[in-house]
Every structure is written in structure tokens, then in C-alpha cells.
UniProtKB/TrEMBL annotation:
It comes from the Bacteria. Pfam families: Cas_Cas1 (PF01867). It comes from Tepidiphilus baoligensis. Keywords: Antiviral defense, Endonuclease, Hydrolase, Magnesium, Metal-binding, Nuclease. This is Uncharacterized protein.
């Protein structure tokens, strides 16, 4: 057993922010020199320009075009790109390769090949999911009882309706998408995506599943927000993510540390 802290905190520097390219924006993302990403419309007008050092990840709609230089710059700086459609469904990922000095990726490969993996991981995952759900429920004024565990979405939506007048599906979905994208970007840098395409795809699905635990807290942020329904969902979500940045970092580090501890405890 190895209690060495994981590399996750080192990967989660607070510098940089998510860049959200809205569904209505049909732009080309170019590299301006070596310092800035420029979002240019098809008629040549500059919509937005941002220094690379200020970008942590990018969420884009399928109509956005990236030049090769822009993609290369994002890869070198570890900037992950996620493409989502108008319904906030993820369609594609661009994750730069990463290395991990603690070789957690190697241990995870051993774990995934173990016949006991589904049972052990399933129990661990459910325990952490229920822990997060209990904290979210309390923030939303609910008891973490059997009814919540059976149908969490119904219980949480009822709580949101009582406070805000409606559940707020679009607002929560928009925030969850940002949280998931950021978690997977952090997780890919921590875990690494080298190896076969099959292995990389397996790891991405695993990170997405883990990210769902962190994304549960979007319900708490929405519930406690002041009149969130007065703002467009995506713009509110981006502002809420920034306002609660410490929460997302803490939850991400907490979960990645627990996951690495679980892997090392069972497969070292």
C-alpha cells in the first residue's frame, strides 16, 4: 500500500479559465503568433482574442473550425477541447497526451485486466457516488434517504421547483457539461492517454463516469443560486463555474486522490 499523495493537485493549477464558444458562434480558431487564440468569423472579423495562458480548456460547438497551428498550440499547453451540440451532448474530444511520474496509468491497466475489477470498482464507485449525493441533498434541503437514492433526479428536481418555480434542466445541464469537461481535462493530464486507441477510449469513458460524481454538485450550485433562471443557461453556467471554482477543484482533487488510493491499495 502506498499513501503517497497523487499528482492530481499539481495538475490542477488555478491559472486559466474555460473558454466557451456558444452554439451560435460559427468561427475559425486561429493562432496569432504564439501568444493568442483568435476567434474569427468567416467574413474575416475578429470575434474574440484571448492569450493562450488564460485558457484552461475549450468547449466548442460543431460549427467551429480549428487551424492546425491552433490545435498544436493547445496540445503543447495541455488545453483540452470538447465539442458539444446544441443539446449539450458531447460529440468529440481533443485531449493532449500526458505523462504521469507516479505511473498511475500502468497500475490502472493492471486493474482493468483483473477479473475482480468490475466488482471492486463498482462497490467503490457507488460508495463515492452516494457520498456526493448525500452532500448535494443536504445543500438542497433534502434528507439523504432511500427515496433519494432510488430516484435522485426526481427528488432534486422537486427541491429546485419548490425554490425556483421550475427544475431548471437546461441550467443544470449547461453547468454539468462545463464541470465534466474540466474534470476530464484534469483527469487526462493526471492519468495520461498514451497507448492503444482502445485503452485511451476506455480511460476516457472511465474519467467521464468519475466526472459524473463531481457534476452532481451542479444541483447544489443551481439550488443555492440567486434567481438563476433570469440568465441564459450557458452564460449562467460559465459564471457559476467561475464563482464556485474552489468547489470544483476541491471535489476533483478529492475524487482523484480517492481513486488513486483505491488503485494503489488493490493493485500495487
Amino acid at each position: 500500500m502506498n499513501d503517497t499523495p497523487p499528482t492530481a493537485p499539481d495538475a490542477l493549477d488555478a491559472f486559466g479559465r474555460p473558454l466557451l464558444i456558444l452554439p451560435s458562434d460559427e468561427v475559425v480558431v486561429e493562432l496569432d503568433g504564439t501568444e493568442r487564440l483568435v476567434l474569427r468569423t468567416h467574413d474575416g472579423n475578429v470575434r474574440h482574442a484571448v492569450p493562450l495562458r488564460h485558457v484552461r480548456s475549450i468547449t466548442a460547438n460543431p460549427h467551429v473550425t480549428f487551424t492546425g497551428a491552433a490545435l498544436d498550440a493547445c496540445a503543447r499547453r495541455g488545453i483540452a477541447i470538447t465539442f458539444v451540440d446544441g443539446r449539450q451532448k458531447r460529440r468529440a474530444f481533443f485531449f493532449p497526451l500526458a505523462t504521469n511520474p507516479l505511473q498511475i496509468a500502468t497500475l490502472l491497466s493492471f486493474a482493468l485486466d483483473d477479473p475482480d475489477w468490475p466488482e471492486r470498482y463498482g462497490a467503490w464507485y457507488e460508495n463515492h457516488r452516494l457520498g456526493a449525493l448525500s452532500r448535494v441533498a443536504l445543500a438542497c434541503g433534502l434528507l439523504p434517504d432511500a427515496a433519494l437514492r432510488r430516484a435522485p433526479d426526481i427528488a432534486l428536481e422537486a427541491s429546485h421547483r419548490r425554490k425556483h418555480g421550475q427544475p431548471g434542466h437546461e441550467w443544470i445541464a449547461a453547468l454539468r457539461e462545463i464541470v465534466l469537461t474540466e474534470f476530464m481535462a484534469d483527469g487526462s493530464r493526471w492519468l495520461g492517454t498514451q497507448g492503444s486507441a482502445w485503452r485511451a477510449e476506455t480511460w476516457m469513458h472511465l474519467l467521464e463516469e468519475l466526472g459524473e460524481i463531481v457534476a452532481l454538485h451542479a444541483h447544489a450550485v443551481f439550488h443555492l443560486a440567486h434567481k438563476p433562471l433570469q440568465h441564459p443557461p450557458q452564460r449562467w453556467a460559465l459564471a457559476a463555474y467561475h464563482a464556485e471554482r474552489t468547489r470544483w477543484q476541491n471535489e476533483t482533487v478529492r475524487l482523484l486522490y480517492a481513486f488513486e488510493h483505491f488503485i494503489r491499495e488493490n493493485w500495487t
